[in-house]
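Lab notebook, bench 4. The sequencing result for the construct came back, and we need a structural model before the next group meeting so we can plan mutations. Quick request posted to the team channel:

Model the 3D structure of this chain.
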Amino acid sequence: MSLSIRLARGGARKKPFYRVVVADKRMPRDGRFIEKIGYYNPLLAEKDKRVTLDGERAQHWLARGAQPSRRVALFLHKIGIGEKPEIPKQTKKALPRKKELERREAALKTKEEKTEEKTEGKTEEKAEGKQSDAEKPAADE
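Done. Here's the predicted structure in token form:
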């Protein structure tokens, strides 16, 4: 049996409350669990009181092969059990889709082409202006 230490959601709509439970990985999130080892209330103002965990029971289940979820692993790290998990800073949902990347790339190319045309035109005007300036004193003589 593969065990996990994870959060089970409770509470009303828009008022979440979580239990930290040890459960079989095949069970649903809020389904049957083996043991309740703590609580997590994200709505509390005081950060120190948001999480309460029984560290001894957590160590017991970790020794038996239970795998903590990322969030629970973070809670365990804060009380001194286990290593800090790597939590990605940006999800794929926040990244632009393939078509949007293509549009941005095309827009960048057209913008670069326009700036190149402008700089080429300015350099040509400067070159012509310098030649005409050089011709003017010769014509006065």
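The beta strands are 3-12, 15-24, 35-40, 51-53, 67-68.
Will bring this to the meeting.
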